[in-house]
Structures are given as structure tokens and as C-alpha cells.
């Protein structure tokens, strides 16, 4: 399903991509990240949607943090970026 969402993202069809995402019963980090990239690129016209999606993810991964920090950067959300950065686990 994530592949289909990615395809519609590449075709800039946010409506269909969001509808497909909404039909996924057991969303995983890949499906969240694929949809988040769409919003990060500004293709949806809603710069804050990427942050909203990030907030709904229970266990973000490295890719998630990269996507959301880039989205914050492009939307000039410095405080939000700092808060998210502080949540990134440090691997020793």
C-alpha cells in the first residue's frame, strides 16, 4: 500500500494518496513516512500537515526525524524543530 501512496505522491495526487493512507488499518512507519514526504515537499499546500502526521506516529525512526526536521526548516518552525531534535534518541 505504501508503494501506491508513493506513486500518487509522485503524481501529486494528494487526495488519492490521503484516501489510500486512510484505508490502511495497521499503519506502519513506512506508510507514515511516505505520506509525510508528500506534505514536506509542499505538494499538499498545507505546510503544517507534516507536523500533524509526525505527532500521530508512536515510534518515529531516523527517516521520520529527517523528514520532519526538514519540514520544520522549510516552514520556519524553529521551536518545533528544537523540541523534536531533543526527542531524538542518542545511539552510542
UniProtKB/TrEMBL annotation:
Q: Which GO terms describe its molecular function?
A: RNA binding
Q: Where is the signal peptide?
A: none
Q: Which Pfam families match?
A: PPR
Source domain of life? Eukaryota
Q: What GO biological process terms are annotated to this protein in UniProt?
A: RNA modification
InterPro entries, per this entry? PPR_At4g14850-like_plant, PPR_rpt, TPR-like_helical_dom_sf
Question: What is this protein's record name?
Answer: Uncharacterized protein
Q: Which organism is this entry from?
A: Rotaria sordida
Q: What is the lineage of its organism?
A: Eukaryota, Metazoa, Spiralia, Gnathifera, Rotifera
